[in-house]
Amino acid sequence: MRNVKICIKMYSKVHPNQLVLPVMRMMFAENCQVRESSGTLMHIMVKELENDVLKSSPTYIDVDTKQRILASMFICKYDPIEKNSVQAGWYWKSIVDN
Predict the structure, then answer these.
(1) Where are the domains of the chain?
(2) Which phi and psi (to 5°) does residue 58 adopt?
């Protein structure tokens, strides 16, 4: 996980789509630990992109990717594993104001 965090810090602004898509796939993996880690990674990535996901016209990603990220993070709030859903809810609240 530490190595992935380093990659996110180094490449998130240069090649965000190459990082976003694999993490989004992992957010819906069968293994609950993978889902938990990928939620954390997505949260870190959103913060590294300077909350570009929340802007109406994002700089680093396209609008379709922005909508997919937000939709994935919202869906993860309803994970059947309570620990994952609580964590995803916390990440959602730290990014979105409503």
Answers:
(1) 18-95
(2) -65, 150
Determine contact, residues 55/13, Cβ cutoff 8 Å.
no
A 10 A CB-CB count for 24 gives: 18
Looking at residue 22, the DSSP 8-state letter turns out to be H
3-state SS assignment for residue 39? helix
- 10 Å Cβ neighbour count for 10? 12
pTM equals 0.82
Closest CA to 86 of 47, 32, 44, 13: 32
Residue type, 72: S
Which tokens is 54 given? 């929340």
Here the tokens at position 32 are 């609950």
pLDDT at position 97 over 80: no
Residue 9 carries which side chain, given as an amino acid letter? Answer: K
| Joined tokens for residue 62 | 């396209």
What single-letter amino acid sits at 44? I
